[in-house]
Amino acid sequence: MVLSVQPSSPEYVSSDGTVPPPQRGTFAKITRSVSASCRRLLTVISPDAATGGSPVPKAIGGNISSPFNGKAQGRAQPRFSELRKEIWKDSMRESWAEVLAALKDKAEQMESLGSKAIPRFHYDELQKGLSDEQIAEIREAGVVVVCGAVSKEEALGWKQSLQDYIAENRDRVICHPVTKPVFYELYNTKAQILARTHPGVVKTQKALMSFWHASDPNSEISLVQPISYFDRLRIREPGYHGWTLGPHIDGGGVERWVDPGYRSCYAPIFEGGDSWKQLDSYDVTPRLTANQDLYDSANQCTVFRAWQGWTSLSTTKAREGTLRVVPFLKLSTAYVMLRPFFKPKPGCEASLEADDWEPDLEHGEFHGTSPGRAQNLSVKSHPHLQLDKTVISIDFVEPGDQVYWHCDLIHAVEAEHTGAGDSSVLYIPATPLTVKNAQYLTKQRAHFEAGLPAP
């Protein structure tokens, strides 16, 4: 069942990441499942944790770059070729042609619209209730900017608190890149806990999670109660920092095709013909069985985040080190999922025409990713996306503004920061309560109590 139970304190989740007590039977069902798993999960963290000792975690390693630059678990594997043959339908040729034709039009549209392609609403509008047309606009783009939920003064106060903390603990804070930091591996500073539990942030997340639904009414999930997922932060000074996040999709790489549960999220795409148009990116039911991390990758997120997101701590414009997105969710998802099944014909490597591409079922490569790595995208690996035209920067945000993007959306960070001030954000996703996510909270709580980074 899709849970609709409000917790006892509707606006706040405990700062240690725990969920308030259940109110009715359906919520209790999840809680009982978590309770049964808790001792086993704590044992993974420490042999002593399950019996009340001080938890000592298994090895913790990696940083934000690990899913992109970390060790891959081998490249193309023979079984991947067999998997592609199992998935393949001849009618996927038609799907490929339709998607490529639509991408041509979309690239021209994005080049014309620029940042206007990214929906932007005030927090008050969200709370009063958006129109069906406005909700459809957000769902189609897969991204939204929400202004006004957090005051500018409060957000700037959080940033000052963070800067003070970093200065006082400079020799202990882990950051990346080391020589000119951008990303800080901090998870539970006072400012982060205040931001995650801020009523405006929580209410924004509730509103956005309501855009999702469950095709199976027996799905064990609450789309009305965000949980507190501990994430890092970014404080980026002007200039070039040597490394940044190029176009990518989080939540695993080859898992999207290899894991049956994860693949089911994209089932209409593999039906061929125009079935890809029936893709429902906001159906939560198949997400509940998806395994985003088959290869135990360093720093790979295993939690289902309906919306990834951040809250701004600075005034930032395009070309000032901000977020970039490909704001057409269904079409870009269909292309990414179909891409491994096609290759250019000999001599047609530079062509974007569908007639110049043919099925490729013999090779095991999944373009832009391999086991243990995230899904990267480039002009070379995914040429039809025309990323030079379709990756759009968030044009303008002020302290306290929030940006959320769908978990399947292609996104990146600008390579250079040409502005005068810092470009800073707290990463705070909209994460629903599910059985798997609740199980993760038991590990997260143990790490929190031990003074350790999030698992």
TrEMBL record:
- Pfam families, alphabetized: Gig2-like
The residue ranges flagged as biased composition, category Polar residues, are: 1-17
Region annotation (Disordered) ranges: 1-24
Q: Which residues form the signal peptide?
A: none
Superkingdom, according to UniProt?
Eukaryota
The protein's name in its UniProt record: DUF1479-domain-containing protein
